[in-house]
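Hypothesis: this fold can be encoded by more than one sequence.
Test: take the structure tokens below, design a sequence, compare later.
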């Protein structure tokens, strides 16, 4: 019988995130992503909850409302400026710009529009206002080693960790 996902299990999976309305794939992880379930929440809590009790070979879909995670879209975080006022290195759609307000708080803004005269940035999380579907394919489930549990996930090759520590708890 296959091992099931529960706290302390090392899980490897791949996933993609698509916009429910358009079907457009927003991001995809094609190489196995490893984590220790219950020790390292690498995805949204609702995704982890849906993984509980599943096993290798399962494929699941989890819908997430971006507004519930990141709050409602705030149009005051979208603004444009004359292109001449924007440094050259920021003049590309998709560029992330870290900005600081007068109280020292920082926020990441994404360049969303560029034309011959203006540049527009948006400080909302790209998932605000969207419902997305995580499609996850579970590749393997096994007991986590002591080192993986301490690290919360996979131990990178060449990390200098003693392989003898990589035994199940």
């Amino acid at each position: 019988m296959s091992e099931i996902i529960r706290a302390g299990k090392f899980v490897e999976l791949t996933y993609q995130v698509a916009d429910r309305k358009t079907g457009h794939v927003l991001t995809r992880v094609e190489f196995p992503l490893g984590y220790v379930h219950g020790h390292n929440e690498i995805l949204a809590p609702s995704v982890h909850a849906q993984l509980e009790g599943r096993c290798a070979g399962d494929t699941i879909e989890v819908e997430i409302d971006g507004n519930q995670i990141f709050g409602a879209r705030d149009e005051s975080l979208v603004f444009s400026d004359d292109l001449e006022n924007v440094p050259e290195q920021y003049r590309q759609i998709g560029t992330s710009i870290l900005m600081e307000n007068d109280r020292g708080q920082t926020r990441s803004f994404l360049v969303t529009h560029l034309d011959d005269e203006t540049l527009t940035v948006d400080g909302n999380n790209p998932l605000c206002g969207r419902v997305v579907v995580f499609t996850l394919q579970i590749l393997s489930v096994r007991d986590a080693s002591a080192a993986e549990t301490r690290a919360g996930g996979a131990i990178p090759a060449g990390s200098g960790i003693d392989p003898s520590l990589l035994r199940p708890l």
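The chain has two domains: 9-68+129-165, 74-122. DSSP finds three helices and eight strands in the chain.
Hypothesis status: open.
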